[in-house]
Amino acid sequence: MTVPTGRRARKKAATRQNIADTALRLFLEHGYDAVGIRDVAAAADVAVTTVFSHFASKEALVFEQDEDFEQRLARAVTGRAPDEPLIPALRREIHALVRHCTAEGAAPIWRMIDESPALREYEKTMRLRHAESLAAAIAADPGMARTAMACRAIARFAIDAYSLAREAAEPEAAVDEIFRMIEAAWEAARTAPGPVTEGR
User: Fold this and answer.
1) Which of 69, 140, 154, 179 could form a disulfide with 91, with the two C-beta atoms 3.0–4.6 Å apart?
2) Do residues 119 and 113 touch, judged by C-beta distance below 8 A?
3) How far is CA 100 from each of CA 1, 64, 172, rounded to the nearest angstrom?
4) pLDDT digits (tens, 9 = 90+) for 160-183
5) Are both 80 and 154 inside the same structural domain?
6) According to the UniProt record, which residues make up the DNA-binding region (predicted)?
């Protein structure tokens, strides 16, 4: 997670984290559907308006690192070394995200998500948004020489790799297996016919 600078920013980040941690604790203790925003606000000792100033919805409380993950994926493209190929950089970031989401204590959270239609739908929408953001970062790199459709497809594949690996018996091995296929697809797209602006 990005460390905020400045006293005000740190205080704001601490309040946000407190709300998210409190919400998750209540959701796991009492069930997601049984806990309302007012319950979260009371337990976190903040106003309801403060909760909504940090989180747009109840579902967003569960995925509090949503924005951070999206930025990390984009930085895997834009922040890599000039001579580093795209796919290894993406694979490294997906490995890191999978390790985070399969760490000790994560299983009850994913069970809660899987049991809630609202949370499943939110996660689906979130994944699509992350894929579009990642595709934009890839397409903006002048050295890619791929169509816009190829950039979108590879971004979707990378996001799906995260989802599939998270559920696999051996997540790390799953990431590597999937990325071997992604790398082959990316190389094949280099010679694919069509203008660079295809699909835009």
Assistant:
1) 179
2) yes
3) 11, 13, 12
4) 999 999 999 999 999 999 999 999
5) yes
6) 36-55
CATH number at residue 85: 1.10.357
pTM, full prediction: 0.84
Beta-carbon contacts of 183 under 8 Å, excluding residues fewer than 6 positions away, are 87
Rg (CA), the chain: 19
φ, ψ for residue 62, nearest 5 deg: -75, -35
pLDDT in tens, 25-35: 999 999 999 99
Measure the CA–CA gap between 12 and 108, rounded to whole angstroms.
28
Give the span between the Cα atoms of 136 and 82, in whole angstroms. Answer: 18
- In the Cβ-directed half-sphere of 190, how many Cα atoms lie within 13 Å? 9
Residue appearing with tokens 């998270």: 166
CA dihedral 131, 133, 136, 137 (to 10 degrees): -100
Q: Are residues 164 and 112 in the same domain?
A: yes
Tokens of 134: 């990642």
